[in-house]
Amino acid sequence: MTARNSFSAVLRNQGLQAVLVYRFGRQLLLAKRRPWWWPLLIVGVPGYLVAAAVIRGCYGIHLFLSAQIGAGFSVQHFGGVEVANCRLGEGCTVGQQTQVGSRTAAEGPQVGDGVWIGGHAKVLGPVRIGDGATIAPGARVMKTIPARAFVVGDPGRVVFRGYDNTQIQPKS
Amino acid sequence: MRYYNGLRRQIGWTPRTLTLKLLLVLGRILAITLAKSDISETSSLDGGVYLSDHGYLIVGPRHLGRGSLIHQRVTIGAKAGGGPIKPTIGEQVWIGPDCIIYGQIEIGDGATILPGTVLSMNVPPRAVAAGNPATIIARDFDNAALRQNLRTDVDRAQFASPCIRSGT
Predict the structure, then answer these.
(1) In CATH, B37-160 is 2.60.120.10
(2) Across B46-56, average pLDDT
(3) pTM for the whole thing?
(4) What sign has the CA pseudo-torsion B157, B158, B163, B166?
(5) Which residue of chain B is at minimal alpha-carbon distance from A117?
């Protein structure tokens, strides 16, 4: 990917901007154990706070630093996304108006690798979601989901198992 | 002029097209920031539609008929992994908040989609759809009372837009 393509991708994709700001904030948290980084924090911490406020105000994408998100995470559309106090594996995708975990709950969901969460879906409570599961748009998940399951509806129920969601995951 | 055409042929862009592209991208960011909404440029919208200004509309239907009304936090688009075919929405349709409408479907004229519906099937004209997943809960329902306070009636819209078809 050339420099112009990557610049254009960042400019067009609001979710990518939010993920970049989140990754920057997580890097700042590592500075606790690295005293030689502390001079950089004078610029880094206000820079992160301003960027996060702009992302939240303009696009409504709330990626809190209490969430632990693996590599390859992508947000499909802007608007109303809240990811807090949870753990997401590698290669997860969330849609718009999605809520994964909440800021007030003591314990958040544990989501596996390669999970696709559609728009307007909610995953709340101390639940565990298996690798490669697919949560359809509009589903509300409040119980543990096995791996490679397809969840639909409110309240969410497993419609069938062994669903392969590599077709609907965005191509890296 | 020869230099200009050669530039366009060789590298695919000219200063004019690049400026227009940049304006499109920046204007889109401005619209997302201010209006919190995104309407796909590939969709065709008739005149006289009402889109909520409370935001978080992500709207990309193939066609949206006149007199339709879409509330906030509604997503309309193609099915994930199901090809580029988007929903076709008829005239004078009322779509409540928090709805999701996706896939290759058609919504008839005068239909009502109640709040919180997840719709991926056809809706006949003047029917009411609700639920997650959606079902048809009533037929032959007149939604004029739902739309009357929002000034989407066709008489006003005819003055506002040149896109109204002739007749009716």
Answers:
(1) no
(2) 86
(3) 0.85
(4) positive
(5) B80
